[in-house]
């Protein structure tokens, strides 16, 4: 039996866009934020505001999560988004995944009662990501 989940994929590059497409293809509800330069993705709701993100079962932040300064890494967005504002919109019991989480971001999240799961710490992802980069 499949369980439909509500995902928000926030910021990032083509990897996050592909993740959004795959999750939607698996029957999940998927929202994106900060990927608007790509145009519409099949079966994915492109959001322009953070309203509704608190309802997500899982929020996926990019790799790396932080861009310049304390901004979200969002090269496919026309806007710039402070990570503090994004974290303020989340709730403590959500599953929040992010890549290459640094100490300042961890501290920002902890101050809000949030736990970030750093998916880049998984060896198989780090190795698989290194292949196309090389």
Mind explaining what this structure looks like?
The protein is α/β, with parallel strands linked by helices. The chain has a single domain (16-27, 39-133), classed as Rossmann fold (3-Layer(aba) Sandwich), CATH 3.40.50.720. Helices cover 28% and strands 17% of the residues. The protein has four helices and six strands, in the order βαβββαβαβα. It has a six-stranded parallel sheet with strand order 3-2-1-4-5-6, covered by helices on one side. Helix 3 links the parallel strand 5 (95-98) and strand 6 (116-118). The radius of gyration is 14 Å and the shape is globular. The termini are far apart. The mean pLDDT is 91.
Features:
6-stranded parallel β-sheet, globular, 134 residues, alpha/beta, Rossmann fold, 4 helices, 6 strands
List the helices and strands and how they pair.
Layout: E1 6-10, H1 14-25, E2 29-33, E3 45-47, E4 58-60, H2 83-88, E5 95-98, H3 103-110, E6 116-118, H4 123-133
Parallel strand pairs: 1-2, 1-4, 2-3, 4-5, 5-6
Nutshell version of this structure?
The chain has 134 residues and is α/β, with parallel strands linked by helices. The chain has helices spanning 14-25, 83-88, 103-110, 123-133, and strands spanning 6-10, 29-33, 45-47, 58-60, 95-98, 116-118.
CATH architecture: 3-Layer(aba) Sandwich
* Broad CATH class: Alpha Beta
* Strand ordering within the main sheet: 3-2-1-4-5-6
Beta fraction of the residues?
Answer: 15-25%
Helix content: 25-40%
Overall pLDDT: 91
How many strands? 6
- The shape is globular
The largest pleated sheet is described as: 6 strands, parallel
Roughly how many Å apart are the termini?
40 Å
Say which CATH homologous superfamily is assigned: NAD(P)-binding Rossmann-like Domain
Flag low-confidence runs.
none
Estimated structural class: alpha/beta
